[in-house]
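Task 17 of the worksheet. Students: predict the tertiary structure of the chain below and write it out as structure tokens. Keep your answer in the requested format; marks are given for formatting as well as content.
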Amino acid sequence: MRVTGAAHGMGKEMALKLSEQGAIVVCWDISQDGLNETVKEIEEGGGKAVGDVVDVSDREQVLAAAQRVRDQVGDVTMLFNNAGIISCKPLLQHSHKELHRIFNVNVFSQFYTLEAFLPQMLEMKKGHVIAMSSAAGVQGAAFIVPYSSSKFAVTGLMDSLHEEVRYSHSNSNVKFTTVHPFIVSTGLVQAPRIRFNSLTPITSPKKAVETIIDGVLRDREVIFVPSYGEILYRVAKWVILNSS
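Model answer:
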């Protein structure tokens, strides 16, 4: 199992939870201190983990780190592509550099990790790719336009790739799951201002990971966090479409 963004928030919780279930967890992040803490907690709990400082927006770093993973622990059968960044301000206040950074981390990192690990999964005819999109990846939101756009891209990537693998590798058992959290209280950023705030639940990383793992074990292709989030999304969509 390989988790990106494993130094904090949902990535860390996912690494800890999967370790409890017996998985060897490979943790990637740009924070050495955060990685050390995650690996330490896993090992103190009796689990096995490997930490590696990787900037997932850098293709060469991803490919090199993937080879180190294969050398250290063997083939990876589950990817949790969680790394992501958000900027909460009007679109026109974003610099060119900020826009590129958001898409490099949130979108292109997904392509790089797939390039690194999907061929082996298809060859083995087994594996599971879990990608972190967002509720903002199915419904646009003000003041997080670049982030929302990047998460729509992740949703499209996963939907399209799933269909492509159905056709090109019909006998494969590689699974794909897209996760759409609403607001998760990681403490990294202030909650964005969005429509229907009163309907928008705030979830703890621990509870979010419990929902994700439950959905993954059920082989769900789409997971909303919290689980009733899909209902909230459909209600909000209906209100928007029918408002004057």
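Marker's comment: The first strand starts at residue 2 and ends at 4. The chain has one domain: 2-242.
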